[in-house]
Every structure is written in C-alpha cells, then in structure tokens.
Amino acid sequence: APKEFTYAKNDGSLRRFLYDGEQFTVWNEGDNTILVNFYGDKLIRKNFDFLYRLVRTEQYKLAASAKNMSLVNLTEYDYYSDSNILEKSVEQDFNTKKRVERHFNEKGLNVLSLESHYEERDVKTQKKKNGDESQGKETLLLDDIKTVKAYDEKGRLYEEEVIFWNYKKNLMGRYLTEERKTKNIFDYSAVTDENKLPPNLKFYENDELHLERKFSTSGNYSERLYFEDGFSVEVFYEDGLRKTEIIYQNDKEQRRREFDY
C-alpha cells in the first residue's frame, strides 16, 4: 500500500507531506502562498495570491543538483479585479518554444486565443570595416494561430474567426509569411427552447462563403457547398440521410439526383 508521511512545524501547521513517492510542501511569501510538489524528475511550484487565486505555475525538470534544474513551463494568470473570474492566461513551454495567450470576458468565456512560437533567424548586421556584412542571429516571437470568438447575450457562440500563419524561407534567403483565415457564423434565429435546433451555419474561408447549413429539425437539414466559377452543390438530408442533391451553376439548377434507401 502507498505510504503516507506528514511533517509539521512547531505551531502544528503543515511543513511537508509525502504520499507514494510524491512530496508536497507549502509556505507563505508575504501575502502569497507557495505550494510545491515534486515527483521523480518533475517539480511544480504554484503561487496563490492573498485571495488564494492561482497566479503563477512553474514546472521544472530536476537534475542531479538543484542549480542545474531547468524551467520547462511557465503559466501566469490575471483576474478581473477581486473576482475569481480569469481575465487572461499566458503559457510558455520552453522545450517546444511555444507560447499560448488566452483572454476571457467577464462571464469567463474564452474570447481570444493566440498561439505563437519562438524562432531563431539569420540576420545581416552592419558592415565591417572591409565592407563585408556579418551574419548574426535573432530570436523572434511569431504568431501561428489566432482565434477570436463572440457570444450573444445568452452566452452562445455566434462568431468564430481563426487566422493561420505559415512561415518559410525562399531561395533568396528571404522569409515569407502566408496567411489563411476562416470564419464560422452561427444563426440562432430559428432556435427555441422547445425545438432545441442546432444553429444554422455559414462558413467562410478568406472572406469567401464556402458552406451554408440550415436546419428544419435536428435530423433534417440542407448543406450547400460553394466552389469557383459560380458552381455549387446543395444536399438535403432527412433523418440524417442524404435524400436530394442539386447542382447549380450561377444559382441555376443544372442537375438533380434523388436517393432511395
């Protein structure tokens, strides 16, 4: 059975707690409370403010000596005034060189997420006395994915926009940035407490409409896919099964197909 040990200070407060190889210790630093637990080669330090809200988490990888332990992950938290509602969090992973920043509204709903990474790049520095340019390095924080969400008065997601960035180096040694954007718009106008319909959906890519989905019941709906040169395909579903497919050219019906099961 796992062994449990408790070590207390002279005043009876907890100093250290051991359970099945994992150790916990806690102490106060000013108005803050520090909780540390470690197991194997992992140490996690959590910092709580005077309202006992988690404001900082540090994760370390332990080595043979304490001076050689390395910080592998850091997360910091900000709150709305004196409430327990999270306003912002920033997480940095030093192994993967990635950073994630999240923002929340006063209802605690995530309204923005930004995923980034640190990248080392070659840069040309000032010319030397002989006229040659020296090559140097710089570390940049580059954005990868940005997600922005909007909610209605009932807290339902009605718009979600995602921007993707991709970076590459061309044959001339220049760094290029490619951007792609998608957007989902949810329409709840036909949704009631009685019918509990899913919301209708419009999906855009780079500001061009690619998909429309409309519900009459939860199992009966239509989907229309938009392609280049005015070509589109609309499919009608009944009880989740494809029943009718219509092909359009510039909104004029070109062909219809019925499905029997």
Walkthrough of the structure:
- The chain has a 19-stranded antiparallel beta sheet, with no helix packed on it.
- It has strands at 4-8, 14-19, 22-29, 32-39, 42-48, 54-61, 70-79, 86-93, 98-104, 110-127, 133-151, 157-169, 175-187, 200-205, 208-215, 221-226, 231-238, 241-249, 252-258.
- The model has no long low-confidence stretch (mean pLDDT 90).
- It is built from no helices and 19 strands.
- A hairpin with a 2-residue loop joins strand 3 and strand 4.
Assembly classification: single chain
Strand content: over 45%
Outline type: extended
Helical residue percent band: under 10%
Annotation field: number of helices: 0
Alpha carbon gap, first and last residue: 59 Å
Q: What is the CA-atom radius of gyration, in angstroms?
A: 28 Å
What structural category arises from helix and sheet content?
Answer: mainly beta
Largest sheet: 19 strands, antiparallel
Number of strand elements: 19
**Element pattern in H and E:** EEEEEEEEEEEEEEEEEEE
**Which regions have little confidence, pLDDT < 50, spanning 5+ residues?**
none
Mean pLDDT: 90
